[in-house]
């Protein structure tokens, strides 16, 4: 996501039993092999568990096999994808084609993934390759381009007399309060506290909330980024205040991701901070899909709202795969020919693609889309290194966000200011430790 480079051209659920079976299978079964029918078999591991249940992956593989009948693709889906894949990647048993976990450091790409080509050459065809490139080599291609903001049931807002989505934290809190007052049975803002991944979306709005495509790079030199008035403080304070005022679920520890989507579709939940990838999932559950809309995070700069676009999971090839040619054939088909981006409400990763209908409302509202600025050469892993050293987990864990919720609920004795002070200390120390 590059500063000043605005896009106007937009242009197994993995059960324990399944994991045990994978661990007990032979090496040929793990990495794919020739079946009795002579087909080459590869395994594709991903996070889209809902597509296992609704048969969508079966449709995709059937479409692939129309063009490539000699390659059999076995699909394995995992709910806690990042967590489970971290464990799986301690061995060579992590499929042939997979979604690249966001926890992998850029400098470690080559240890786990097959190089896909020269980054500059691939950038002529695809957007947002920076996340999974290192030293000018690409190891992954985004499966879609998304933005992070607020997924809402706009009918709930309209019924409360709110016809335009709030543009500031103050307006947003007032809207949540009005919804709660008019219908106490509705949860105005659902945190998905117990998911152990969904709350990371509060971190992914940071460039949007800052209105600055270079914000993540600036975090690598700011030793007090959680001070009052700074974007990270603003984001976390909105979460804290929403919980403190009683506008979120009564018991965050019992949240349920799958149920939350149905509740949002049914109007029992008004809003969730999520990526635009979730639009399609919730609209598919709604009686009136048009009620489900996507809005920019409620912050405004000089009267303008911004939203940063970024790559969804990147798709890559296991460097240990014994079937790299077949794996590359599937990968290329997936990003070039499948309808994945459109089917998930995302923007195509291909250069020149149009903005999908699901995000047109943001464009109509005057929200400005931009790409985040890539890290300077030689500092591709600096943010990740500082983030890991600090143990704050911006965008990688829910722990800090859960801590804020716990404090707001009164389950701990910490104040919001206490938490922000400690986060500043951890981040500042990490900058010193990692160095420039």
TrEMBL record:
**Keyword check for Glycoprotein:** no
Q: Which PROSITE patterns match?
A: PROKAR_LIPOPROTEIN
Q: One Pfam family name from the record? A: SBP_bac_1
Keyword Cell membrane present in the record's keywords: the answer is yes
Q: Which superkingdom is the protein from?
A: Bacteria
Signal peptide range equals: 1-25
Record keywords, A-Z = Cell membrane, Lipoprotein, Membrane, Palmitate, Signal
Gene3D superfamilies (UniProt xref): Periplasmic binding protein-like II (3.40.190.10)
* Entries under PANTHER family matching the protein: ARABINOSE-BINDING PROTEIN-RELATED, POLYGALACTURONAN_RHAMNOGALACTURONAN-BINDING PROTEIN YTCQ
The protein's name in its UniProt record: Sugar ABC transporter substrate-binding protein
* Source organism of this protein record: Niallia circulans (Bacillus circulans)
Q: What is the lineage of its organism?
A: Bacteria, Bacillati, Bacillota, Bacilli, Bacillales
């Amino acid at each position: 996501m590059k500063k000043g480079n605005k896009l106007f051209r937009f242009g197994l659920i993995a059960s324990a039993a399944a994991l045990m079976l994978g661990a007990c299978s032979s090496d040929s079964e793990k990495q794919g092999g020739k079946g009795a029918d002579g087909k080459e078999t590869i395994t594709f591991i991903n996070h889209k568990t809902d597509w296992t249940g609704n048969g969508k992956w079966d449709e995709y593989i059937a479409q692939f096999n129309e063009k490539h009948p000699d390659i059999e693709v076995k699909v394995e889906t995992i709910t806690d994808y990042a967590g489970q894949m971290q464990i799986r990647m301690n061995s060579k048993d992590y499929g042939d084609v997979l979604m690249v976990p966001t926890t992998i450091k850029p400098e470690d790409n080559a240890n786990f993934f097959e190089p896909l080509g020269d980054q500059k050459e691939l950038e002529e065809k695809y957007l947002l390759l920076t996340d999974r490139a290192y030293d000018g080599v690409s190891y992954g291609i985004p499966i879609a381009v998304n933005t992070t903001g607020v997924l809402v049931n706009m009918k709930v807002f309209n019924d409360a007399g709110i016809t335009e989505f709030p543009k500031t934290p103050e307006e947003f809190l007032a809207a949540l309060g009005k919804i709660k007052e008019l219908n106490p049975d509705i949860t105005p803002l659902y945190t998905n506290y117990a998911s152990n991944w969904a709350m990371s979306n509060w971190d992914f709005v940071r460039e949007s909330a800052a209105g600055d495509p270079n914000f993540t790079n600036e975090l690598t030199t700011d030793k007090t980024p959680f001070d009052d008035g700074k974007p990270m403080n603003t984001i976390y304070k909105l979460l804290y205040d929403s919980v403190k005022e009683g506008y979120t679920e009564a018991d965050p520890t019992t949240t349920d991701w799958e149920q939350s989507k149905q509740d949002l579709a049914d109007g029992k939940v008004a809003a969730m901070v999520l990526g635009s990838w979730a639009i399609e999932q919730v609209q598919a559950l709604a009686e009136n899909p048009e009620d489900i809309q996507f809005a920019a995070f409620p912050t405004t700069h000089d009267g303008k709202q911004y939203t940063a676009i970024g790559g969804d999971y990147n798709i890559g090839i296991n460097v240990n795969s014994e079937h790299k040619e077949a794996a590359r054939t599937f990968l290329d088909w997936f990003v070039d020919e499948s309808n994945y981006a459109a089917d998930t409400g995302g923007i195509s990763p291909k250069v020149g693609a149009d903005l999908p209908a699901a995000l047109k409302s943001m464009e109509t509202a005057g929200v400005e889309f931009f790409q985040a600025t890539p890290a300077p050469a030689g500092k591709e892993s600096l943010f990740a290194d500082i983030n890991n050293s600090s143990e704050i987990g911006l965008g990688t864990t829910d722990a800090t966000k859960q801590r804020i919720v716990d404090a707001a609920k009164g389950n701990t004795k910490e104040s919001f200011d206490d938490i922000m002070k400690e986060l500043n200390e951890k981040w500042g120390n990490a900058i010193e430790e990692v160095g420039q």
